[in-house]
């Protein structure tokens, strides 16, 4: 701890007014790139209000300490008013934020505390995980004022959940199957699934040619394609190669249905860009479980 605080010289960190543009960029990736984002708010309370002349010194010592504890990918900033800070934790959720605050509090309370000032103080923290790209930074700022006003115990940590409501994400599901009845069975299996935060739109095509002639697959939405390898006019492998040559090909998650069981066929399919390989006949419950696992990764 000897290297943490050597001086109370003012440390240069971002201000609250600097943060909104960075926050807007980060929150855009919450949906697009499925990035985690958590905002932490810290407030220090001084027990002896008569020592106001020392508060500025304490504020700089805490700022130095926080600079030493955050990662290079995190963003530390001062909140308006004294003895308040915020931290944008990128690529971290609520649990990581909670662990970070607990570690900070433990270091401050330890006998090896880095603070060299005769002024007793305590900390309180707020954790707000953001899972909605419609959240406005000013709403977070307003919320932390409300929550801090309600905290009564020193070293208290409060989790705010009101920014975790995820928007519905539209996902297209295409089924390429020549057998009309089996195609309808697969569509019904998909439609019966309950997947949180996802709105599924399904469509059945009789072959690859019909699918590629439509404009159904051209939108930017995540698109799950469940198709036979053998189809009239254009088979599944032709469709696979077409989709994987598209500029936005990563939006496609491709399930290949086939009677081919050889290792060579499977290797070729995976190397060509198949995500899941279904050997017919397959169990529909297992198929549904695989789909749910796919959605869990989105």
UniProtKB/TrEMBL annotation:
A Pfam family the protein falls into: Response_reg
Domain Response regulatory: start-end pairs: 172-295
PANTHER family attached to this UniProt entry: TWO-COMPONENT RESPONSE REGULATOR (PTHR43228), TWO-COMPONENT RESPONSE REGULATOR ARR22 (PTHR43228:SF1)
InterPro entries attached to this UniProt entry: CheY-like_superfamily, Sig_transdc_resp-reg_receiver, ST_Response_Regulator
Name the record gives this protein: Response regulator
